[in-house]
Amino acid sequence: MLKDKVAIVTGASRGIGREIALKLASYGATVIVNYCGSKEKAEEVVAYIEGQGGRAVTYQGNVADAESMKEMFAYVIKEFGRVDILVNNAGITRDNLILKMSEEEFDAVIDTDLKGVYNCLKQASRIMLKQKSGRIVNISSVVGVLGNAGQVNYAAAKAGVIGMTKSLARELGSRGITVNAVAPGFIETEMTETLSENIKENTLTQIPLKRFGKVEDVAETVAFLVSDKAAYITGQTIHVDGGMGM
Ligand code: NAP
Question: Does the active-site annotation cover 75?
Answer without folding.
Answer: no
